[in-house]
Write a structure and sequence with these properties.
- The chain is an alpha/beta fold and about 800 residues long.
- The protein has 26 helices and 24 strands.
- The chain has a 7-stranded parallel sheet with strand order 1-5-7-10-13-14-15.
- Helix 24 links the parallel strand 23 and strand 24 (about 745).
- The radius of gyration is 27 Å and the shape is globular.
- Bound molecules: glutamine (GLN) and zinc ion.
- Zinc ion binds near residues 659, 701 and 785.
């Protein structure tokens, strides 16, 4: 590597880039989920890794030619090379050979994982836990968290990206390889087990950057004109590094990658492709934290010697005056929303692009705000029709309102043409897009006066219950529960029989009445099992629910569900988020019959089970034409009606799950307060219409509360169940210290593993819990729902849970 620093002034003004527009990434799972099927077949041993490689190659080539067909330039690096077998962060781990020590035996002499080893790091093997998984910025995508220590091997060992570039070029498309940037890679990593106190992954920046430099040299040698490095760590306040630290890391990394290596350098050892640094998911500029100085990630990136910067203009904004440093760069204006499914008003988007002229960039290009990974492939894969059309169908009006990945590529290409040739050149397309957006605004169901009037009439009283002490007394008298009452989080195992019945019913092969009868039988079985186990508060087991959000979306007005709108959630897992397009209301009770039927089978108290407004929003594509808080209140009101009906049917306990409360937390600290206000408000709106004797539970799927701990108290639920088994009840003292003094059900059975916890283990966890909190408020329950478990694991686990609770009661 050349060590002589090249002064920034030596960087020539680049030729305009991506003049036909670009997208920051594209779904990789396949329009028919081909990659999911192929990967899972390989995992199951039905195919070899060679066969999987061949399928993946076909898929990649189909993807790049599709992108060209949709309008991206095939020759200049506008087509992203954004494939991954599992996860883009894991891909960096593989590229750098940065494999945790426990998986070192899987690597070859060069430190490289083969494809089987790559999957093992993702999924674990025996005692060797996989990399931890966590949420990717404000999306529902989950990445694998690298573990970096002082001794983790780090060098450029795997040239898969180079091979994929060559593969596409040989097929006639010059792609732009997309890689998570070095700073973001380390900012998202955690310190490996055994790393010395005070060690942080960012301490390894020089090694990581040296490896990236080798990767860039290899790509330049292969002829790649561009590489995209994603640095979204710059748009969030939630990584474990201050802005000063991130800035120093960016300067140092891009001094090596941007300044020391050069485009077109004579010596291959000094050459690199042009660099596009992308900052998706938020605003590069943020207010200071706790009175600190404002953060300006745009000025920071503009000050580096990269050739292009991509900014998210859906979530973020830009200054109006010139930004020093941009004069030598292409600014990729991310005006098309990569994270939602609405068709854009293209004329308005061109206005935004035009407004950027004052920034003084060398050139402007049109792009998406984020990778299109977060939206489904193609609106044309949906079936549009009316109630008589079989299968899952969408209201035909939606066809014109939606833009999935393929439609967004066309939007980008259209805007780029408008930018290059003038608006007249794309006049028809602009007019059509404006008309579609206008038709949505005035369409029946988008604004429903009755829903609006009800929301407008809400007062503070609609968001508040009476004092907890009164509620607790009334509930104790009504429910008459033993101390340390036992319950579950709601779902029981979704058996193959249940899944089969639902699949048949969806296809029209099983009549409504037969399906309902089968599910009622299942409920009866689950009630009997809970009675036999001696559980105190019973549930119906949720057999009738395909998914905790989709089920409600299917029963509420204002939502649509797709047939093919799959989005990768993690690895081979895909979800099909509902589309919340109109004002939300509840045409009829949803769960009441199920809960009432359950209650008719037992003398024990039965807990009704609902999904909360924030989680319903978080796991749907939401409308973009009003504040999220307004939408949340509409869902809150629909749930409030459902709870009133449950109450009227004699159900004394209702649980409203909010596992996504923390997920939607804004990336910038300054925005979090407003979010917590409306999110907590919508939950309270849903739950505060009940009499004091009705007990409201909530459930959150995690144990690290951090920034949301105050909000959990704010929900004002009578009982809160949380994940706690793996963290050994850590959350209990934390909640107590934060002032939370109502019922708490810290999970004592880790349902994420097939292991059956012994009675002694559960007892030990219970003893830990009651050490820091009054035993009278403690509930005994698993960490989460049991739907992904099997009965042969669930039954003995619950037996031990009940035995431990009974034994603990005796010692109180
Ligand atoms: N009630 C739901 C269940 O038990 C809760 C699921 C969740 O928290 N994600 O399945
Ligand atoms: Zn959960």
């Amino acid at each position: 590597m050349s060590t002589s620093a090249t002064p920034a002034s030596a960087v020539p003004t680049p030729a305009p880039a991506f003049t036909g527009g670009t997208v920051l990434g594209y779904p990789r799972i396949g329009r028919r989920r081909e990659l999911k099927r192929a990967v899972e077949a390989c995992w199951a041993g039905r195919t070899t890794t060679d066969e999987l490689e061949a399928t993946a190659r076909d898929l990649r080539l189909a993807t790049v030619s599709r992108l060209v067909e949709l309008g991206l330039d095939a020759t200049d690096g506008s087509v992203p090379g954004s494939f991954s077998f599992y996860d883009q962060v894991l891909d960096v781990v593989a590229t750098l050979g940065a494999v945790p020590a426990r998986f070192a035996p899987l690597t070859d002499d060069a430190g490289r994982l083969d494809l089987a080893g790559y999957f093992t790091v993702a999924r674990g093997a025996g005692e060797d836990a996989p990399l931890e998984m966590t949420k990717w910025f404000d999306t529902n995508y989950h990445y694998l968290v690298p573990e970096i220590g002082p001794d983790t091997p780090i060098s450029f060992v795997d040239d898969r990206l180079v091979r994929e570039f060559v593969e596409a070029r040989e097929a006639g498309v010059v792609t732009r390889p997309v890689v998570v940037g070095p700073v973001t890679f380390l900012a998202l990593s955690k310190a490996a087990d055994g790393a010395p106190e005070g060690f942080r992954p960012l301490d390894r920046l020089d090694d990581v950057v040296a490896a990236y430099a080798d990767l860039l040299r290899a790509l330049a040698t292969a002829g790649a004109p561009w590489v995209q490095l994603d640095e979204p760590a710059l748009v969030t306040d939630s990584v474990d590094a201050s802005f000063d630290e991130l800035s120093a890391a960016v300067r140092s990394a891009y001094d090596v990658l941007g300044s020391q290596l050069r485009v077109g350098a004579a010596a291959a050892s000094d050459a690199r492709p042009a660099l596009l640094v992308a900052a998706p998911f938020g605003d590069l500029r943020g207010a200071g934290i706790d009175g600190g100085p404002a953060r300006d990630g745009l000025a920071l990136l503009a000050g580096t010697d990269v050739e292009a910067v991509a900014v998210d203009l859906v979530k973020g904004g830009l200054p109006t005056g010139p930004v020093p440093g941009l004069a030598t760069k292409t600014l990729v204006a991310g005006v098309i929303d990569g994270h939602n499914i609405w068709r854009a008003d293209l004329a308005a988007k061109l206005d935004v692009v035009d407004s950027l002229a004052g920034l003084g960039a060398a050139a402007l290009a049109v792009g998406t705000s984020t990778s299109l990974l977060h939206v489904p492939h193609d609106v044309e894969d949906e079936v549009f029709g009316g109630p008589e059309t079989p299968g899952t169908v969408l209201d035909p009006r939606l066809r014109d309102w939606l833009a999935f990945a393929d439609q967004k590529v066309v939007e980008v290409a259209t805007l780029a043409q408008g930018l290059a040739e003038g608006r007249e050149a794309v006049g028809d397309a602009l007019a059509a897009s404006s008309a579609a957006v206008a038709s949505r605004a005035t369409a029946e169901g988008v604004v429903v006066p009755a829903v609006r009037e009800r929301a407008a009439a809400l007062t503070a009283g609609d968001f508040a219950r009476g004092p907890y002490a009164e509620r607790a007394a009334a509930q104790a008298e009504r429910l008459n529960l033993p101390p340390l009452p036992t319950t579950t989080i709601g779902s029981f195992p979704q058996t193959p029989e249940i899944r089969r019945a639902r699949a048949q019913w969806t296809k029209g092969e099983l009549a409504d009445a037969d399906y309902t009868a089968a599910m009622r039988e299942e409920v009866a079985r689950v009630v009997k099992l809970q009675e036999d186990l001696g559980i105190d508060v019973l549930v119906h087991g949720e057999p009738e629910r395909n998914d905790m959000v989709q089920y409600f979306a299917e029963h509420l007005d204002g939502f649509a569900v797709t047939a093919n709108g799959w989005v990768q959630s993690y690895g081979s897992r895909c979800v099909r988020p509902p589309i919340l397009w109109g004002d939300v209301s509840r045409p009829a009770p949803i769960t009441v019959e199920w809960s009432a039927y359950t209650a008719s089978l037992t003398d024990k108290p039965v807990k009704g089970m609902l999904t909360g407004p924030v989680t319903i929003l978080a796991w749907s594509f939401v409308r973009d034409d009003q504040p999220l808080g307004d939408t949340a209140n509409q869902v809150g009101l629909a749930l409030r009606d459902e709870i009133a009906d449950l109450e009227a049917a004699g159900i004394g306990i209702v649980q409203v799950d909010e596992p996504a409360l923390r997920e939607l937390l804004p990336l910038r600290r300054a925005d979090q307060g407003a979010y917590l206000d409306w999110s907590v408000g919508s939950f309270r709106l849903a739950t505060s219409g009940v009499v004091p004797a009705t007990q409201i539970h909530t459930h959150l799927c995690y144990s690290e509360f951090g920034e949301v701990i105050g909000a959990i108290d704010g929900l004002d639920a009578d009982v809160t169940s949380v994940e706690a088994a793996r963290s050994r009840m850590e959350i209990v003292p934390e909640l107590h210290d934060a002032g939370y003094a109502r019922g708490i059900g810290p999970g004592v059975y880790d349902i994420h593993s097939p292991r059956v916890p012994s009675t002694e283990e559960v007892t030990e966890l219970l003893q830990l819990a009651v050490k820091s909190i009054d035993p009278r408020v403690v509930w005994v329950n698993p960490d989460c729902g049991l739907k992904t478990r099997r009965y042969d694991e669930t039954v003995p686990s619950l037996e031990n849970l009940v035995a431990a609770a009974k034994a603990a009661r005796a010692t109180l």
